Amino acid sequence: MFRISIDRAIGLLAALLLLIVQAISAAEFRAASAKTEITPSDSVDLWGYSDRTGPATGTHDPLYAKILVLDDGTTRMALVTLDLGRTFGMESMSVVRDRVRKSANVTHVSFSASHTHSAPVIDESYADGKRPAWETTALDKISAAIEAATKKLQTALIGTGEGEVFIGHNRRLMQPDGKIKMLWRNATKVPTHPLDSRVGIIRIDNQNGKPLAVVVNYSCHPVVYGPDNLQYSADFPGAMAEVVEGAFDADCVCLFLQGAPGDINPYYDKMRLEAGAETLMRQTGRTLGDEALRVTKTITPTAPKTPEIQVSVETRRFQLRYDTEKLLAALRPTASPEALERYQKALSNPTECPVTTMLINREIALMGMPGEPFVELGLNFRDRAPAANSYFAGYLNGYHGYFPTIRAAVEGGYGAEGIVARVEVSAGEAMVDMAIVRLLTMQGLLKSAP
Question: Is residue 406 in a domain?
Answer without folding.
Answer: yes
